[in-house]
Each structure stands twice: as structure tokens, then as C-alpha cells.
Design a protein that fits this description.
- By secondary structure, the protein is of the alpha+beta class.
- The chain has a single domain, classed as Aspartate Aminotransferase, domain 1 (Alpha-Beta Complex).
- The chain has helices spanning 15-31, 34-49, 89-94, 119-138; strands at residues 56-60, 63-67, 71-77, 81-85, 103-104, 109-112.
- It has a six-stranded antiparallel beta sheet.
- Helix 2 packs across helix 4.
- It is globular, with a radius of gyration of 14 Å.
- The two termini are 26 Å apart.
- The model is unreliable at 1-13 (pLDDT under 50).
Length: 148
């Protein structure tokens, strides 16, 4: 994928691990049904374009995700929606008005298939999560809202 960040180290720290994560993400997307795949690829592109250079793609919790100064977010194909997991219940709560068109839980946002990806909202969430992780790191706290 053009623009994909592959120069940074993956979760376990080596370039080989980063390549393995990218292969796992690519395989996950390739197996997803077409409607899901299009939405997942769009989310992947939005996140990749709006994260700092040292952000890495990972495959954990059985789905694709991103790390930046700790876990950033995950996303995955579900039966009737794309699950988007920013790993920040306080942020989901703070964005309640903007998220009112979507089903949410404490840690997840559901984007239904057949509707456009809310690109501006995804971009906003990505930038907020990056700032949360930067602030956490500045405080010296190595754990994120969902762990590291």
C-alpha cells in the first residue's frame, strides 16, 4: 500500500516482525468480504495518512491495528459492520455527539457496511489518540488506555 509506514519497528522490535505484521494485515484484508474489505482499506489509508511517521501497523487481537507510542487503535470486519476500536473509552464518551449516528460501546464504534466511512471523524479520532499517547508518554506512563 503506498504511503504505508514500514520504517519503524513493530511491536517486538525488529524489521522482520514489522514485515510479518504487514503480511498478516494484508492477508486479513484479502480474506474479508468485498464490502468489508473496501471499508477496512479506506480506514487503513485514513489512519496511515494521519499518523506520525514512527507509527507502525500491527496484527494483534486477531485484527489489524496501529501502534504509536503504545497501542493506538484496531479495526476489523464484523458481520454487519466494521468495528473501530480506538482504545480510549473517555474519548468515545467525549465524542458522543459526533458519534451519535453510530452504535458505540465503551471501547468500540460500529461503522455499518453500505454507508460511507466518516473520513473526517476517523481522522479526528486518530489525531486525538496520537495526542493521548504522546501525553501519556510525556507523563512517563508506559501503558495506554488498553495496555501496552
Amino acid at each position: 500500500m503506498p504511503g504505508r509506514k514500514t520504517n519503524a519497528k513493530a511491536k517486538t522490535g525488529s524489521a522482520g516482525d514489522a514485515a510479518a505484521h504487514l503480511r498478516a494485515v494484508d492477508a486479513y484484508l484479502a480474506k474479508a468480504p468485498l464490502a468489508a474489505r473496501k471499508m477496512l482499506e479506506e480506514i487503513r489509508a485514513i489512519v496511515s495518512a494521519n499518523t506520525p511517521e514512527e507509527t507502525t501497523e500491527v496484527f494483534s487481537y486477531g485484527m489489524p491495528g496501529f501502534r504509536y507510542k503504545g497501542p493506538l487503535l484496531w479495526y476489523g470486519a464484523m458481520k454487519n459492520h466494521c468495528g473501530f476500536y480506538p482504545g480510549s473509552p473517555p474519548m468515545i464518551e467525549a465524542l458522543a455527539v459526533e458519534l451519535s449516528a453510530y452504535k458505540t460501546t465503551k471501547g468500540a464504534i460500529q461503522f455499518p457496511y453500505g454507508k460511507p466511512v466518516p473520513a473526517a471523524l476517523v481522522k479526528k479520532i486518530v489525531k486525538l489518540r496520537a495526542k493521548e499517547n504522546e501525553a501519556r508518554e510525556a507523563r512517563g506512563n508506559k501503558r495506554s488506555a488498553v495496555g501496552s
